[in-house]
């Protein structure tokens, strides 16, 4: 069986990085490096030497890896990218779904956006129950919520409180529940609820100590399947930060090549689940690209 649909459920784009973490600026300082919490970190591949993490660069990577479409989420460390993501969606409507960024003091935007990103682990007030009006608004508008929770079970009770009150709201739990931390299974278990899914953005980052082909990451996927079923799991790359160690194509290949997942499981995980969750219609079909090897 061939995999005809591959959708990246978690990645980032920006024209200019202009973020803040713990009151310190996060800005590009050259050759893909950024100032991050007072240190210089390789934040993106070195070939992004001008600091521009653009849709055009991503699309080149997507086409080469046969990725049909992607979901642009956001992070405080990159700064609010609402305006740029609206440009991207208008320019490439068949390839992207986009999230606006929820900010504690500035709220969030809805016009033109498909979803709202909540960086719950970075909120000053970690009590998600106080954000119930945001979730209710997203449900009313037919939007989805993309959310990265605190490690383990710290916010899972709050999430269940929200889910019980917004049963029709589509919610994507990010970073595969922070799978390398204690209690990650409780985040995965939230996907037992009807409209809650889990995406694997950052999975290769969390298992970077092991490196390709990320055997423990695959076993974590198997464990998650046992908790909520493969129909609730979606692949994500967390591009471009994860691409400082591997290529974009490798982020797909370790799933395609493993013998621990069936062809049907790969098909669901890599694209079919995301296609339904994010409401993608007719998809772009990348043409096969032979390389010099």
Summarize the SSE layout with pairings.
Blueprint: E1 7-11, E2 18-21, E3 24-30, E4 33-36, E5 39-42, H1 55-64, E6 69-72, H2 82-91, E7 96-101, E8 115-118, H3 132-141, E9 144-147, H4 156-165, E10 170-173, H5 184-189, E11 196-199, H6 203-206, H7 215-228, E12 233-234, H8 248-257, H9 263-278
Parallel strand pairs: 1-6, 6-7, 7-8, 8-9, 9-10, 10-11, 11-12
Antiparallel strand pairs: 2-3, 3-4, 4-5
Summarize this entry quickly.
With 293 residues, this protein is of the alpha/beta class. The chain has helices at 55-64, 82-91, 132-141, 156-165, 184-189, 203-206, 215-228, 248-257, 263-278, and strands at 7-11, 18-21, 24-30, 33-36, 39-42, 69-72, 96-101, 115-118, 144-147, 170-173, 196-199, 233-234.
Structure write-up:
By secondary structure, this protein is of the alpha/beta class. It contains nine helices and twelve strands. The strands form two sheets. An eight-stranded parallel sheet has the order 1-6-7-8-9-10-11-12, with helices on both faces. The protein has a four-stranded antiparallel sheet with strand order 2-3-4-5, with no helix packed on it. Strand 3 (24-30) and strand 4 form a beta hairpin. The longest helix is centred in the C-terminal third of the chain and has 16 residues, at 263-278. The radius of gyration is 18 Å and the shape is globular. The model has no long low-confidence stretch (mean pLDDT 96).
